[in-house]
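Build the 3D complex.
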Amino acid sequence: MKIEIDDIGVRFGGLWANRNVSFSFEGPSITAVIGPNGAGKSTLFNVMTGFIKPATGEIRLRGERISGQAPEKVAARRIGRTFQIPEICHEMSVRDNVLVGAHRHIRGNLFSQVLNIGASGAAEREAGDRVDVILKDTRLYDLRDRPAGTLPLGRVRLLEIARALASEPELLLLDEAASGLNSQESAELAAFIRTLPSRGISVLLIEHNVGFVMELASTVAVLDHGQLIAVGTPEEVRNNEAVITAYLGKRKS
Amino acid sequence: MRQIHVLLALILAWLLAPLLIETGGTFNLFIFAFINLILVLGLSLLFGYAGQISLGQAGFYGIGAYMAAVLTVRTGLPPVLGLVAAIIVPAALGYIIGRPVLRLRGYYLAMVTAALGLILHTIFVEWVDVTGGYSGITGIPALTIGTLTARSPVTMYYLSGAVGFTVMLLALRLVDTAYGRAMRTMRESEMAARSCGIPTARLKAEVFALSAGLSGLAGALYAQYVGFVSPESFTIDTSINLLLALAVGGVGSLWGAAFGAFLLTFLPEWVHELQNAYGLVLGAMVVVMLTLEPRGLWGIVLRLRDAFARRQATTA
Ligand SMILES: Nc1ncnc2c1ncn2[C@@H]1O[C@H](COP(=O)(O)OP(=O)(O)O)[C@@H](O)[C@H]1O
Ligand SMILES: [Mg+2]
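Done.
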């Protein structure tokens, strides 16, 4: 699997939230996008998942353009994601929320599902089995019948990851998955993320907490004011002049 | 599946009730309650589950009623075909209109669907050649299935009840399928739904079509039972009352919708002595409910159940 981010530009009014952003990576791997708040990281995710059409450039998966397609079409290309501000269904149970991730794999239409004819029933059971494994992996299994709205933030972030995993992605985009977690929770999350490439899942993660990604990612891309200012191994990025100024500059203000 | 047990108990009560009810008047009320049930369930799926408001349900209800009336009275088709057309035509129209219109959200969708209802009502009034204008259409034949004709209140009580319970059962099943989960997710977050591969634009139009089809079904049952249709049954008042009934019963629950439908039917009878106090009582209930218990009457049931469970737990 290869993702190419090629000259992406996004404009909000007079502001370029992304400008000439280009980098690529191959999977299965863990790649990080870091940068100060407002750097344009979430915007780039929204372009990659079809929620924003870029003003310039394109995203290619295996050489085929995916930017500009509707989000549900992008999801069908096996790209899953989480949201910086979690987007879950509060009144639905934890398990049902994760089952939504498996939606694409449950065949049939309204009628075949309601009347339980055709392959719908079997697909639903298969999805259920897979979801239960994911719930155990993410340690949500004991909470599976709780309304998702009653979970603390740390669990909600895991729930979003579980839902994305249920869609069987080949690329998983995590938008600040560790923010709001305590140090133990984020250590557990890091350990979990580290297992994903061995299952054939590439991870692209956004963080503004630099420490969290440096040990996880093999490649780090740094955005500042919408522009890519560095890309390379964690070591290269750590010693990059532009990166140091961007972060230190931010801290001073 | 405790829901199924409740439903079975209700079905049993419905089957046996005619042994206790003597007057035709009460049958009438139950028949209208079942018709309202189908209407409010359609709205519950659309608004309560899929999150798309509609102030134009009466329009589709009307199309159903007029399809049943026109096809049988003017073209002499059998009533069953009128009933089928009364489902399919509003559903198809709902899909075609829903596709572009449901891109709108919230207040805008409310306004556009209200306008849609208004347009349909105007057509019922003005297309005199077909609809009979304000005088409407009389002499609509009763629904006949095989040798069974639903003319007497008792037959219609069983027929409308059978349809009502079937719709309830299918709706309960629907919200538990992948399709239903997609609807519920879409209501809270279209972004989440789309990122899971759910084509929300199509889903919205399909649910709109479904609720329009159910409204049409209710319209046909109404027309074929009463034997008469006129535009005044399909005004925006009807649409608003359906929404208020749903709000009082409980927006996010099919059982709440059922409460709402029965309340909408029986309340005017209960406060009959107070003349037009019905609007006052329903209005007050909406205000009180939405401020104190947004989950409606169904929310009160849930609270009672939880309190009961807690008491059981402490005494055990
Ligand atoms: N929908 C939007 N409309 C207008 N401006 C936006 C929108 N989304 C993001 N922005 C702006 O674009 C810039 C980048 O935002 P974002 O991508 O969320 O940054 P990050 O995720 O790196 O914190 C910010 O200045 C933000 O205010
Ligand atoms: Mg962000």
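Chain B touches chain A through 26 residues (CB under 8 Å).
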